[in-house]
Specification:
heterodimer; A: mainly beta; Elongation Factor Tu (Ef-tu), domain 3; SH3 type barrels; 2 domains; six-stranded mixed beta sheet; five-stranded antiparallel beta sheet; 2 helices; 14 strands; about 40% strand; B: three-stranded mixed beta sheet
């Protein structure tokens, strides 16, 4: 299993917005305007930090005012910067909830402990969350419903989930 | 133009048979279907269908909210991958039949 990333990408500055130093941010958060809710954000190298003073969601993305940026020239200079936070700053998930960032990368094993594959993505197409698992020794992926029945055990500390793949009905004779 | 009410919802006939057979077996199984055009009926609630999207079978756990929609709505043919951000997944309890 690859080492879990300690920093999570929450957004990327797409460019300047207006002439008052606001920036347009493409966010990857569940609610776009909450990008500043976890405290200061840092860039890819982790050397510079950015604080969001105010953010509002628009049709184009989130328009935010960054601390220390007062004009368009300053805002334009931030274009392309990726905004990260430390994983530890995210609040604890509720019972039965898991951050996608925690699930991705976990090893999937069957009931007997035999490796099935690795979780590469978490999807939701409107009928519940699905784990996308890259099967061991293959580039093929399978989607598995994220339910108590099919995923009875999630052990993030041990880096594995137990997956019970549903059977297929017997063909008509 | 909307479908005439007198016709009732459209469902491919074989789905009803498959659903009935699966419910009778009482096992945790995925019913593989290719009929994306079929309407989700109340008797499908609690079952899990694998709806083909041209590449793979996408698991669709049918719940009450989905009645009246088509199966294809829950099995996109194009997938969009995004960064995980602060998104959370909820481990669902199996839907009551």
């Amino acid at each position: 299993m690859a080492a879990k990333p300690t920093r999570i990408l929450l957004g990327r500055i797409a460019g300047a917005h207006g002439i008052r130093g606001e920036v347009l941010i493409k966010t990857f958060t569940a609610a776009p305007e909450t990008i500043g809710a976890y405290g200061p954000l840092s860039d890819e190298s982790g050397t510079r930090t950015y604080s969001i003073e105010h953010a509002r969601a628009t049709a184009k993305g989130v328009v935010a005012r960054m601390r220390g940026i007062a004009d368009r020239t300053g805002a334009e200079a931030l274009k392309g910067i990726a905004l990260y936070i430390e994983r530890a700053r995210l609040p604890a998930a509720a019972e039965g909830e898991f951050y996608h960032a925690d699930l991705i990368g976990l090893q999937a094993v069957d009931g007997g402990g035999k490796p099935v594959g690795e979780i590469v993505a978490v999807q939701n197409f409107g009928a519940g969350d699905l784990l996308e698992i890259r099967l061991a020794g293959s580039s093929r992926t399978e989607l598995v419903s994220f339910t108590d029945q099919t995923v009875p055990e999630v052990d993030i500390a041990a880096g594995r989930v137990v997956v019970i793949l549903p059977s297929e009905p017997e063909p008509d004779t | 133009m909307a479908r005439s009410v007198w016709k009732g919802p459209f469902v491919d006939g074989y789905l009803l048979k498959k659903a009935e057979k699966s419910r009778a077996s009482g096992r945790n199984e995925i019913i593989k279907i290719w009929s994306r055009r079929s309407t989700i009926l109340p008797q499908f609630v609690g079952l899990t269908f694998g709806v083909y999207n041209g590449q793979k079978f996408v698991p669709v756990n049918v719940s009450e909210d989905m009645i009246g929609h088509k199966f294809g709505e829950f099995s996109p043919t194009r997938t969009f991958h995004s960064h995980s951000g602060d998104k959370r997944a909820v481990r669902a309890k199996p839907a009551a039949a």
